[in-house]
Design a protein that fits this description.
- The complex is a heterodimer of chains A (about 110) and B (about 600).
- Helices cover about 25% and strands about 0% of the residues of chain A.
- Chain A is mainly alpha-helical and about 110 residues long.
- The longest helix of chain A has 14 residues.
- Chain A is elongated and about 65 Å long.
- In chain B, about 20% of the residues lie in helices and about 30% in strands.
- Chain B has 4 domains: about 230 residues, no CATH class; about 100 residues, Lipocalin; about 80 residues, Immunoglobulins (Immunoglobulin-like, Sandwich), CATH 2.60.40; about 130 residues, Immunoglobulin-like, CATH 2.60.40.10.
- Classes of the chains: A mainly alpha (about 110), B alpha+beta (about 600).
């Protein structure tokens, strides 16, 4: 790497990232790390509800409130968001825009 | 429009009706409010009768299915669930489930299908079906994590494709705690499609002309989880209401707080399968005392469901399995918006003789001396040090008794004592693996290795994540991660967080929340955060890092031990299928 010099911003970030990883010593850990995915309600969508396909949160739909109405109306996350079709037709009635009015949404126990 | 109107009416009534059925499994305890204006008989609704009747069309195998003779179920359910000459009712007679499974069904019937049930009736329905059409202990065993509400990394080895189909929306635990006929598995898939039409695009259909994922799931589940099994035949023949009254010694481990020891006094309740409890225990590390009282029901002859300190801020739900000999119960007590707090517990019946529940601290270094406490019940008041037998190289120099629940001993371990787990024999009682004789903490592990917290506190509750730092000795072979390694238990560490770099310039660590000095992670508030790019929520990935510099590190060594675990701080759930919830809607946090 000594002969190479980053000439644009992204290359600079890559170099910084590589340097950061070299500093990261985890030799004292019990086992090598793999992607760990704890059991939530859903695991496999990319992006998913709790984690993305890599087992992290970087690829999630964000902020979640931006996506909430679609989830509700289309019944897309039936175990995570109240569905408009059957259980909670009026869930968003107090909430014109989830991004602004998210505090008006209720936690639902079907 | 007709359907929509019906649903709306049902939802309007939901608060009262669902409170009626809520909290039944964990009944014990909760005094359920009366349901006002409860009709004595259900109003006939032909539209919904036709709807449900279609789903439960007769066509089951003739020789299967359980007759139902509960008058409550017949009266309340018959308008949709047709009863045949042998007393079998459509759908209901062709499945077996846990109490949670039955209660979820009852809740759905109230919420969506206009069922009216009083609290006592709903309780009777769940109890009858759990006892007559429950699971045998062997059948429940692989799915205990589901009813014990454990956050684990579960893999369904039997069929990864079917697992993939089911866990797109919910835990596999919900599937493996049910038994159905093939027709009933097919109808269940039809119910999914009816309630959640998008499943065909999400998980059920994979495209092409061949068998679809939903077909493969039906094939596998009918084979793996049929209605009739030898396990259930055997268990249901021998099943009876267990007699659990008496004193039980409690030993447990609570993540974030360590070992707990105490006693549980169980007395008879209002019915033969109901019990009352008086619970006292203490945390071995901190000495903090807990005193609780509660109530429970035992379903299917072995499934303990209870609550202690019901209604209080510190209410714990209890899910335990009573062993076949009625001598032991194991399970989990828990609380928290996501069931994240509470101990794993084991209760041992105290019947006259002494019981040893555990020793704290458990790990003793060779060539050292330490003060330990032996916990249990009916322990000798004036113990003789010679009565304690920990095996070769471990001597008890003094022993001080007390009220029978605890003995304080001074233990000394010889230089040449073999390293390993030691059983304790004391006054006719014994405990396997009571202590660990070790030669130093060789490495650390942070548990859980994959943790999950959920942002909250604004409109939705926070989901916390407690951590433990577990010390390990590499064992006699000196090699890490081999069979002879010794798990030494919690060790004192300093906690910190590090960035888990998932993207360039990842800065999650600034937003996700805070890790306490006790190892409990508290997530940040929910809602969009305008300080973050794209108003991201305070979600993110971080490493939870434990650093150990204890006296057990190699003599003279300056190194400290370090371990880390991956924490996901993620979004809330806006919907929770908690069968015991008494309140169907409403804000938990103002």
């Amino acid at each position: 790497m000594k002969q190479l010099k980053p000439i644009n911003q992204k290359a600079g970030r890559i170099e910084a990232q590589v340097a950061r990883e070299e500093m990261d010593v985890v030799g004292l850990e019990s086992r090598p790390e793999g992607p760990h995915i704890p059991l939530g309600c859903s695991l496999v969508f990319a992006p998913g509800w709790e984690v993305d396909s890599s087992g992290g949160t970087a690829g999630l739909c964000q902020p979640v409130e931006r996506d909430l109405f679609d989830c509700h109306l289309a019944c897309f996350w039936p175990a995570h968001v109240p569905d408009q079709l059957n259980h909670s037709p009026d869930w968003t009635s107090q909430c014109a825009s989830a991004q602004k009015d998210w505090r008006k949404l209720d936690l639902v126990f079907p | 429009m007709r359907r929509k109107a019906t649903t709306r009416r049902a939802l309007d009534r939901l608060p009262a009706a669902a409170m009626a059925v809520g909290a039944l499994v964990f009944l014990g305890a909760r005094a359920l409010p009366p349901v006002p204006d409860m009709p004595s008989t259900p109003a006939v609704d032909l539209a919904s009768a036709r709807f449900a009747g279609t789903a439960g069309a007769p066509g089951q195998a003739d020789d299967e299915g359980y007759p139902i003779d509960s008058q409550v179920i017949i009266v309340r359910c018959q308008r949709c669930h047709e009863r045949d000459d042998e007393g079998r009712m459509t759908r209901i007679s062709y499945e077996r489930k846990t109490p949670e499974g039955w209660q979820t069904s009852v809740r759905r019937m109230v919420a969506l299908n206009d069922v009216s049930l009083g609290p006592d009736e709903a309780r009777e329905v769940v109890r009858y079906l759990s006892n007559r059409q429950g699971l045998a202990p062997e059948e429940l065993e692989p799915g205990r994590f589901e009813v014990e509400r454990r956050l684990i990394e579960h893999v369904y080895e039997a069929d990864r494709d079917v697992e993939n189909t089911c866990i797109q929306c919910h835990s596999m635990g919900r599937v493996i705690t049910q038994r159905r006929t093939r027709e009933e598995w097919e109808l269940l898939m039809a119910t999914h499609r009816g309630l959640y039409p998008l499943v065909d695009f999400q998980a059920f259909q994979g495209g092409g002309d061949g068998p679809q994922p939903v077909d493969e799931a039906i094939d596998h589940l009918s084979e793996a989880f049929p209605l009739e099994t030898p396990e259930w035949s055997a268990w249901s023949a021998s099943m009876r209401t267990p007699r659990l009254a008496g004193t039980w010694a409690l030993a447990g481990f609570e993540p974030g707080k360590g070992q707990v020891f105490g006693t549980v006094e169980i007395t008879a309740g209002d019915a033969p399968d109901e019990f009352r409890t008086a619970i006292t225990y203490a945390y071995a590390e901190s000495g903090e005392q807990e005193s609780r009282s509660g109530q429970s029901i035992v379903y299917t002859g072995y499934q303990w469901r209870g609550r202690s300190n019901p209604g209080g801020q510190d209410e714990l739900r209890e899910v335990m399995t009573v062993d076949r000999d009625w001598q032991e119960m194991t399970g989990r007590w828990f609380r928290g918006a996501y069931d994240e707090f509470g101990p794993d517990v084991k209760l041992t019946r105290v019947s006259g003789g002494p019981v040893v529940s555990g020793v704290h601290p458990r790990a003793i270094r060779v060539a050292s001396s330490a003060e330990l406490r032996v916990h249990g019940a009916n322990l000798p008041a004036n113990p003789d040090p010679a009565d304690f037998d920990f095996g070769r190289g471990v001597r008890v120099e003094s022993a001080t008794g007390g009220d029978g629940d605890r003995i304080t001993i001074r233990l000394s371990v010889d230089d040449d004592a073999p390293v390993g787990e030691r059983d304790l024999f004391l006054a006719g009682a014994s405990l396997r693996g009571a202590i660990q004789v070790h030669d130093g903490v060789d490495r650390l592990e942070v548990t859980p290795r994959a943790g999950m917290a959920r942002i909250g506190g604004g409109a939705f509750p926070k989901g916390y994540q407690p951590y433990d730092a577990i010390g390990w000795d590499d064992g006699p072979d000196g090699e890490p991660n081999t069979e002879d390694d010794l798990r030494l238990g919690r060790v004192p560490v300093t906690w910190s967080m590090e960035e888990y770099a998932a993207t360039f310039d990842d800065d999650d660590i600034q937003y996700v929340g805070a890790l306490g000095s006790d190892g409990v992670f508290t997530p940040a508030i929910d809602g969009p955060n305008t300080d973050r790019t794209g108003s991201r929520n305070n979600v993110g990935d971080v490493w939870i890092v434990a650093t150990y510099a204890g006296s057990d590190a190699d003599a003279g060594a300056s190194r400290s031990l370090r371990a880390r675990a991956h924490l996901i701080v993620t979004v809330p759930l806006y919907l929770k299928f908690d069968p015991w919830q008494g309140v169907p809607t409403g804000r938990l946090v103002p």
